[in-house]
Amino acid sequence: MVKVNSGGGWRAIAYSFKKGREAGGMWKFYRALRSKNACKTCALGMGGQKGGMVNEVGSFPEVCKKSMQAMASDMQGGIDPNFWKQNSIESLQRLTPRELEYLGRLVHPVRYRRGQSHFETITWEQAFDTIVGKLREVTPDETFWYFSGRSSNEAGFLLQLMARLYGTNNVNNCSYYCHQASGVGLNSSVGSGTATIQLEDLEHADCVMLIGGNPASNHPRLMSSLLKVRRSGGKVIVINPVRETGLIRFRIPSDPRSLLGGSKIATHYYQPHIGGDLALLWGIAKAVRQAGRVDLDFLSQHCRHHDEWLAAVDAMDWAEIVAKSGVSQAEMEEIAEVYGQCNRAVFAWTMGITHHQHGVLNVQAISALALCRGMVGRPGSGLMPIRGHSNVQGIGSVGVTPRLKKQIFDALQEKYGIQLPTSAGKDTLACMESAHQGDLKVGFCLGGNLYGSNPDSAYAAAALSNLQMNVMLSTTMNTGHVHGLADDTIILPVLARDEEPQPTTQESMFNYVRLSDGGPRRLPGPRSEIDVISTIASRLMPDTQGVDWTAMGQTSTIRQWIGEVIPGFEKIKSIDQSKEEFQIAGRTFHQPSFGTKDGKAILHVHALPPLAAEGPGRLRLMTVRSEGQFNTVVYEDEDLYRNQTARDIILIHPDDFPTLGIHPESRVTVSSDTGRMENILARPYPDIRSGNALMYYPESNVLVPRSIDPKSKTPAFKGVVITVTPQERGSVAPAG
């Protein structure tokens, strides 16, 4: 493998031709990518009525490997029904995430029953009868309903409505395992749980602080926006325990100048210890304060608790900040100097900030750092959580949370005469724990890979195996279909977004709602998510007061409901006729009037947590995605930008090998309080901060404890304390 020293570039162009051949030819592939549908991958947002490869400010062509990978996967042929007879469950469990993804498209409902050795194909009628029969057999609060962020607003709203009318609030989504801490932290700081900016604000900023993220691999189209910041003279400050190749230098294929010469992205790069972010953020704030750069007028006019916050900043001890962050005082003062000189700053982050037991505190500290200079509530400035799945934000907006917002709850009951449950409902991890205890009997998963996204994968498998039934709606196979099998496991094949027979909508991370036209089905067999949900609902609850389930099989009807009950979504009622995509009102703050009761932002004071794993023989582990991966889906085993060709590895700084008593390129055992992985290749990696380590998600989930942030219930996938020891002789267990 030739070492890569920049992201993007000619390799990305060559890769697009490779995926085009896999999809049946470049013209066919290009037409699919250019269709009027929102991109299927990240929530940065692309496509819709402007056509694919166009972003919210009209820039074309905007395309990345992630969108091509997802599209090519959906353009696979179908899995032959004989496959299920020829391949046992045991053999499928030996397949890697990548091998499962490339088995082909699911085209038949398949079923596993406890004691069988193989899946069997069943008819749609058999599937519906079995699911409805089981739901009638159990009580509603013995079920849980899990939603992926790849589904549409319409499917998400319809399924959560069905679950609640059935009688349970055990309704949750994948954000509890990623950005829930962002939503909670932002709501508690600025009164809205989403980005406070639009895409054009980002591109007009003169300073972007990117904290705990790697968009070069996970949100590549963001790199063109960062390049615009650089070309206009702006600064990009990257804070990450790992020096990521694509954040240092990137070649944007659609930009000839960047492609040929390469583009420097980060102007400044700092490497705290994993878990040192909160101390670092307070340290930057202290340096800003000492440099006289705090906007005291803004704080006094537009922020609550500013006196307490300023006093806490002044009282913070530099020695404690440095020890708990791993960053020197001089470096923090350097960051403060760059920040202090800018006029328009955007703060962006991903799961390096949220995947901690203090994830909400991290987000509150980022908010405070922005507010202390008045960088929220003005154009070109604000807060930007970089969301994962393409519609994960929309799924939350349309009510996929255990407890509905009061305004939505009241509107549903008053406008439609329905009765909704008032129980608290369980978040995602609470549902897993209840399943493990035997309190939940049935799971229903709208996309995603619940098994693969859980911490402590051994526990997750046991919990899901404890269910009497688990139903999963999917386009392709994943590890969640073959591990943690319930007494009765049913996989229902559904259409991809660009195959839907009716228009659907999605919401980007910038609070922008798009309309996807759908398109012709590629294969016989799969059904639309709306069709599946409305059919089950009509058979389970045929006489529901206030709801016509047949009418709810039309996405236009669902949009009428959404527009009536979800604040800011009024325009969605006519979007299929008007084709007018829109910005959701009340979330973007170009004036310092915030979504709190008194219109003021809120500053929070924190105690700094100690760094984990302080001691000989131990490391802090961060679980990460590779460049050839999106969420739990692995499209390529290689990690191009980190120059790795396998996934059964642990990347460790060269200085840590002697203290661990291991040799470079040797096989080791990696252990945590939760689990252990054997036969892992220990590879020297100078780009990670000493004392820390990196392994790939979801394979390394077996090591991740079920420790959660108490405010958001998000598991701490970062900062896992591990020990690394030489591999015992005779042990050749495969990684993961």
From TrEMBL:
Gene3D superfamilies: 2.40.40.20, 3.40.50.740, Dimethylsulfoxide Reductase, domain 2 (3.40.228.10). Residues 105-482 form the Molybdopterin oxidoreductase domain. Its EC number is 1.17.1.9. One of its GO terms (cellular component) is membrane. Pfam families: Molybdopterin, Molydop_binding. InterPro entries: Asp_de-COase-like_dom_sf, MoPterin_dinucl-bd_dom, Mopterin_OxRdtase, Mopterin_OxRdtse_a_bac, Prok_molybdopt-oxidoreductase. The keyword Metal-binding applies. GO terms for molecular function: 4 iron, 4 sulfur cluster binding; formate dehydrogenase (NAD+) activity; molybdenum ion binding; molybdopterin cofactor binding. One of its GO terms (biological process) is cellular respiration. It is an enzyme of class 1 (oxidoreductase). Residues 619-720 form the Molybdopterin dinucleotide-binding domain. This is Putative formate dehydrogenase. It comes from Crateriforma conspicua.
